[in-house]
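Fold these two proteins, one after the other.
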Amino acid sequence: MARYTGPACRLCRREGEKLFLKGSRCFSPKCSFEKRGFVPGQHGRTNQGRSDRESVYGQQLRAKQRARRVYGILERQFRHYYGVALRTRGMTGLNLLVTLESRLDNVIFRMGLAENRAQARQLVNHGHFRINGRRADIPSMLVKQGDVISISETSKGDTYFKELSDVAEKRPCAAWLDRDLKNLTGKVLRLPERAEIDGNINEQLIVEYYSR
C-alpha cells in the first residue's frame, strides 16, 4: 500500500497546526513547527494570516486534507472509506471517523503500543501483532468489538517489546480500548463515540467536500 514518505513536519505547517505526527518530538523544542510555523513554499511567510479569507471550498479541502494526514492515508483509500461511510446507516461523517479509528495501525497507537501512527504502521507491516491469535500484518485492517490484539511470541524477545511495558505505561489508552501491559495484549471493548475521537477534524466539511 502506498504511503506518504516526505517530511512529516511539512504537513503540519501546511495545515497551520500541530498534527503530532512524530510523537514525543512534537512536544520538544526540536519540533519544526515551533521554528517555522508558516506555510511551506517560497510564499509561505507572505501568506500568513490569510486563512480567514479562505473560500468555502478551501475550508472543505483543508478539513479533508487534515483528516488524511492525521491518519496517514492517501486520497484513493480515503475516498474509499468515505464511500463505505456513505453506504452505512447513520451519520456519514461519524461513520467515516469511526472507520478511520478502527484501522489496526490507529488502534495500536491508541493503545499506547506505538509512539505515533507511522510507527504503529511499521510494526504492523513487520508482522509483530496478532488479532484473535491470527497474524495481522495489514495496517488498514478494521477491528471490531471483542477483537483481542496481542504480540506474536517471536516478537516478544525483541528489545522494543521488552522495554514497551515501562514506556507504554506513560502513554494514555483510549477509553473504548483495554490493554494489559504485563502481557502486552489489548481488547476492543466497543467502537468509539464522537467525543472520544480527538483531533481538530470537522467531519461535516469533509462530507460537504465529497457531496459537491
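Now the second one:
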Amino acid sequence: MSASDSQQHRVLRGVATALVAVVIWCLPMPAGVSGKAWHLFAIFFATIIGLILQPLPMGAVVLLGTTLTALTGTLSIADALNGFMNGTVWLIVVAFLFARAFSKTGLGRRIAYLLIRAVGHRTIGLAYALAVSDMILAPGIPSGAARTGGVLFPIVKSLATTYGSEPGPTAGRIGSYLMLSAYHVHAVTCAMFLTSMAANPLIAELTKKTIGIEITWGGWALAALGPGLLSFLIMPLLIFQLARPEIRQTPEAAELATTELAKMGPMGRAEWVVLGAFALALGLWLTGSWTGIDATVVAFLGLCLMLVLGAIGWDDVLAERPGWDALIWFGGLVGMATMLAKLGLIKWFSVAVGGYVKGWPWLPALAILALVYMYSHYFFASLTAHASAFFVPFLTVAVAAGAPPYFAALTFAFFSNLCVCLTHYGGGPSPVYFGAGYVSLKKWWGIGFLVSLVYLVIWMGLGPFYWRAIGLF
C-alpha cells in the first residue's frame, strides 16, 4: 500500500469515527438520560470506535475526545481533565518506567539466561525457563510487547538459531515450539497481575466507577493465583503436544546462556538497585491491605529509589514514550468513564438491560457473556481497545442478571487478557512472534483456538470452585 493510499484510508477511518459521534449526538435521548450524559456518551463511544479503527495513534484519538467534551460544553475543563489526576493512571505510567529500568540495566535478560542455564538442558525445560522469566518480569513490566516481545523474543530467536531452526523447513526442529510456548504463556502472565498488562489498571478503575468495587493489586493476584498457576504449568506441556518439536535435548542452550552471562559480567550496582526496588514494590503491593499504603504510592517509591540511587536517570523518565502515551489515552478514558457514571448513564444502562435478563440464572448468563466477550476479540487488534469497548457493557449486563459484582468483574478482567491467544494480531507481541515466520497462519489460529478452550475449562470450569473457596462469591 502506497503512502497516499495509507493516508486516504486513515482519513476514511477518521470520517467514520466522526460520523459515529454526530449520529449518536443527534439521536433522540432515551427517557431518563440527561442531555450532557447523552452527548458525553456520543463522544465516548466515538472515541472507542476511534481506538478500534485507529485513524490516529491511540493517545491522539483519546486527546481529541477529551478536548471535544470541553469544547462542546459537555464537561467543564476540570471534569474533562479529572482522569489525569487519577492514581491508577499514574500507577501504569510508573510501571512502564520499571520496564525501562529492567531493559536498560539488562536485569530482565540476566534473569532469563540464569533460568535457562539452570533448567534449559531439555526443550521442555527451556520453555519453562522462558515461562518463569516472563512470570518474574510480569508484575513490573505492564506491556506484553515490551516484556515478551522486547526482552524474551530476542532470546527465543537466538535459541532457535542455535539449533539450526529457522523459518521454513527447519522451523519445526524447535523454533515453532519455543515461539508458541512463549507467546501463549504471555497471555497467562498478563492475566495474573494488575500491573502485567496496560489495560488491567483501566479495568480496575472502570470496575470502581461502574459498580463501586475496588480491585486491589493483592486482590487481583489472589483471584488469579489458582487458575493462573494451573494454566501456567499446563501451557508449555500443552504446546509441546500440539507443536511437537523434533529436538528434545538442548545442552547447547545452557552453554549459550553461560556465554551470554559471561559477556554481561557480574551484576552491576544498577541491576541490584532495580532488583531491590522491584522486590520492595512487590512486597508492598502484596501486603497493601495490611500496610494501608496505596499501590500508586508504592510505585512512586520504587521509582524514586531508582532515580536517587542512579539506576535510571531523569532523561530515561522523559524518554519513556509508551508510558506517557498511556497517560494520555488511559487518563482520558478514565475521565470520560468517571463522568458517565456521575451523570447517571451507567445506572440507566444497567436498569434498561436488567429488564432483558430478568429471570435468568446468573451463572449461565455470566458463562454466555464470557464466551461472547472472549471470542469477540477476533474483531480487535488491541487488548486495550477490546476492554475499553466491551468491559463496562458486559459487566453491567452480568450484574443486572444477578451475578456477584466482584466475581463478574474479575471474570471479564481475566478474559480481557486470555483472549490474546486467538489471533496473530490480537496484542502487542502477536505480530512480533507470528512475523518471525516459524508458524503458519493456519497453525497459529488452530492452536490459539484450542488454547482458548483450555482457558475456558480452567477459568470458567474450575476457577469458580477456587473463587468460591477464597470467598469471592
